[in-house]
Specification:
With about 350 residues, the chain is an alpha+beta fold. The protein has a single domain, classed as 4-Layer Sandwich (Anthranilate synthase). Helix content is about 30%, strand content about 35%. The chain has 7 helices and 19 strands. Strands 3, 4, 5, 10, 11, 12, 13, 14, 16 and 17 form a 10-stranded antiparallel sheet that branches. A 9-stranded antiparallel sheet has the order 6-2-1-8-9-18-19-7-15. Strand 16 and strand 17 form a beta hairpin. Helix 3 crosses helix 7. The longest helix has 19 residues. The two termini are about 30 Å apart.
Length: about 350
């Protein structure tokens, strides 16, 4: 424990001195890995062939940031989960912003009914003032609250401070083998009560599975698809389908597989090109790194663990910028989609609870 507290102090010093760092923990792990960059340069990557921690934006046309292994001091430390009692945090929402988001959903439904798309993911940003920001407390809470998620805190003076607890794998590779998943549908988790999924949610899940399978045909010769099952992520439950396979020799690299998958139908929509263009033109704010992807890459072992940047937030000027969204299909009901984003806000609100005014 003393070793981990020492790491927290090192991270705080880096942050105070505006030097890049990332601290993360893989799902179900009690070990935290920390990269403390030795300089303040902004490093970029596009081929994903170097040993690094990559931090990629939603808009893949923009450069992906990374913290290179060779430019960092790297530490691996055990930590102890702290028991944190969760309670739903109520926040007052602006009526006009709620109506504006519902109007966006209605517009997307009209587009879907015209058959230009089958699914469009719409998101929004919620700003929240903080009484006092505490980086060490933030790290401890995010690691302890969501052990089944990929948890991280990233900082670079050019990108700002980001943190999150993602339930969704973009791709995990080991040699020529890979794993990914389709994740859709959202319900509040109720202990000992199985969720009853609607037709809209089961169709949405099928859209995601089919789109990912089609995209993977470019880079893999073998694809195995599991049965769909319930997956708990924090206080929510999703529909999940696991997909794995073997990469085509000589034709598939980490760069080609991320290009095939990102942005996934779960965070963008289908068809991918149309949905992405629609989002960039109609969402009325910049997602930045929300619904991008991130994670460690080890080129020597052809090993990577990349996750979609969901359930995340950005901290800037003592304000938290929380990002949430939902998949819109022909059967979507605007007020229900709004309520879904309200549920998703709770994941990061729980992390911030001691710091909220």
């Amino acid at each position: 424990m003393a070793e981990f507290l020492n790491i927290l102090q090192k991270v705080t010093n880096h942050y105070n001195n505006k030097v890049p760092f990332v601290i993360y923990s893989l799902p179900e792990s009690k070990r935290a890995t920390t990269y403390l960059q030795k300089d303040v340069e902004l490093y970029n990557t596009s081929v994903f062939e170097e040993d690094c921690f990559v931090f990629a934006p939603f808009d893949y046309q923009k450069k992906s940031c990374c913290i290179p292994l060779e430019k960092s001091d790297v530490f691996e430390t055990d930590f102890v989960y702290e028991f944190i009692k969760k309670k739903e945090i109520e926040i007052i929402e602006d009526y006009f912003k709620k109506e504006a988001y519902c109007d966006q959903i209605k517009k997307a439904i009209r587009v879907i009914k015209s058959r230009r798309a089958t699914k469009i993911v719409l998101s929004r940003k919620r700003k929240l003032p903080l009484a006092e920001f505490d980086l060490e407390l933030l790290i401890q809470r995010i690691l302890s609250l969501y052990p089944s998620a990929f948890r991280y805190v990233w900082y670079h003076p050019n990108t700002g401070l980001w943190c999150g607890a993602s339930p969704e794998v973009l791709v995990q590779t080991e040699g020529v083998s890979f794993k990914t998943m389709a994740l859709a549908g959202t319900r509040k988790h109720i202990e000992d009560v199985a969720p009853k999924w609607t037709i809209k949610e089961t169709i949405e899940q099928k859209i995601v599975v089919d789109a990912i399978s089609t995209s993977l045909q470019k880079v893999t010769s073998v694809v195995r698809i599991s049965k769909t099952y319930n997956h708990q992520a924090a206080s929510l439950v999703h529909l999940r389908t696991d997909i794995n396979g073997i990469l085509k020799k000589g034709k598939a690299t980490l760069s080609t597989i991320t290009s095939a998958l990102h942005p996934t139908p779960a965070v963008c929509g289908t068809p991918q090109d149309y949905a992405k263009k629609y989002i960039l033109e109609n969402e009325n704010y910049q997602r930045e790194y929300y619904t991008g992807f991130l994670g460690p890459i080890c080129s020597k072992d052809s090993c990577s663990n990349l996750f979609v940047n969901l359930r995340c937030m950005k901290i800037k000027n003592n304000k938290a910028h929380l990002f949430v969204g939902g998949g819109i299909t022909i059967d979507s009901i605007p007020i229900k989609e709004w309520e879904e984003t309200q549920h998703k806000l709770q994941t990061m609100l729980q992390v911030l609870e001691p710091m909220i005014r």
